[in-house]
Specification:
There is one protein chain. This protein is of the alpha+beta class. Helix content is 38%, strand content 26%.
Length: 81
């Protein structure tokens, strides 16, 4: 199973990514060994995640989310399930 996720960085920016293990990925971000973007923005906090059928679908959704404006990402994060 793959997941698309959004974390909030220490500078209040959002980072969107995909993984097959959310806990491990967030831990990796916080250890400074995650994505280049988050390395100097630790700690990060997981705000939102959703399961995806496969890596391809997760990547497509990640791409769409990365194109959203911050206000639209906030709507997604705060949307009740």
């Amino acid at each position: 199973m793959w997941y698309v996720y959004i974390v909030e960085c220490s500078d209040n920016t959002y980072y969107t990514g995909i993984t097959n293990n959310i806990e491990k990925r967030v831990s990796k971000h916080n250890s400074g060994k995650g994505a280049k973007y988050t390395r100097n923005r630790t700690p990060v906090k997981l705000l939102w995640s959703v399961q995806s059928e496969n890596r391809s679908e997760a990547s497509k959704l990640e791409y769409k989310i990365k194109k959203l404006k911050r206000v639209d990402k906030e709507k997604l994060i705060n949307r009740p399930d």
